[in-house]
Amino acid sequence: MEPVGQDASGGRRTAGGRPGGAVLHQRFRAPVTGLLSLPASRPRSSGRHDAIIIGGGHNGLVAAAYLGRAGLKTLVLESRPMLGGPGATVEFMPGYFSSIANSPGSLEPKIVRDLELEHYGLTFVRPDPTLVQPLAHDRLYVGWRNPARNQAQIEAFAPGEAARYDAFFAYLQKFADRLGISIFEPPPSLHHLVRNLTRLEDQEAFSRIFFGNVRDLMQEFELAQETQALIAPLAVVGGQASPSTPGTPFNLMMRPLSLASLKAGGAQDPRLIPLRGSTGLPVGGLGAIIDALRASVLAHGGAVKTGVGVATIKTRGNASSAS
Ligand SMILES: Cc1cc2nc3c(=O)[nH]c(=O)nc-3n(C[C@H](O)[C@H](O)[C@H](O)COP(=O)(O)OP(=O)(O)OC[C@H]3O[C@@H](n4cnc5c(N)ncnc54)[C@H](O)[C@@H]3O)c2cc1C
């Protein structure tokens, strides 16, 4: 196969390597495969690729790393000169590097483990406290990893507040458990999503979490203003939303759904750390996650090419080609 663009493993740039929409000179053909229902291991085929991932953001790299481990010959094509999307390290001023995204908050521990990212160079600093949030009247909430220390601070907002805070998150967790789906499987249809919600209380929770807003939900639990100020940012982050925007409670479901999919692996599981506290801070910034993902892909036979934008995908029968 003629090499196209720049191989992120260090290969030379050749024809067609133009970021943002270059047409490949070589057609790639890949059987269309149910990506998440692969057998645990398949003999690696030779020649054409079994799977081509278009886009070398972190999701594309994670997909490629799992496919490689499943024995598929996998290629990642990225239009930009670097991998990682907003997680890529960029030199924004001469000599100054950063990524656009700043938080590894939702990086799944299972993915770190499955793809051996720490083996491939990723290291975390795990600060304690994990966050500090200013509150009115010169007060601070300090997010310690120790749940008891957090409870004491929350209880100081109002008598019984720690119990209400716990009840709020237990409500979300119970709903996630009742859904009976896994974030590690293909996304469910709406029918599949709601099929276990046969009890009235589950249906009400569905309505509140999917169509209600986080302000109303927090008020139903009679949370103190300070507690609401801690929780609301998590429900609106990443969207042009206010706490009154319908659907905002669903943004609090990432951890509950993760825990419903795979139970916690001990008290230090980052998914149990309160609020935004999490996995830890990757040494080298978010780009270090991308570097480790790339190394994991390459170590399992995958290929990664940057500066190669895919303009069209053609399918014929069970085969696809990208160009
Ligand atoms: C400003 C901002 C800040 C954010 N901060 C955070 C944060 O702090 N923490 C967090 O967890 N999330 C953050 N996010 C969200 C996070 O960046 C996205 O959820 C994540 O990037 C999605 O990853 P992805 O791999 O699906 O897509 P992307 O990261 O968008 O990757 C897609 C890749 O595909 C490439 N591509 C597109 N079309 C083609 C084509 N035709 N051919 C070849 N390549 C193509 C793109 O160049 C890109 O590299 C932030 C998002 C933004 C916009």
UniProtKB/TrEMBL annotation:
Pfam families: NAD_binding_8. Signal peptide: none annotated. Coiled coil: none annotated. It comes from the Bacteria. InterPro entries: FAD/NAD-bd_sf (IPR036188). Residues 1-22 are annotated as: Disordered. This is NAD(P)/FAD-dependent oxidoreductase. It comes from Phreatobacter stygius.
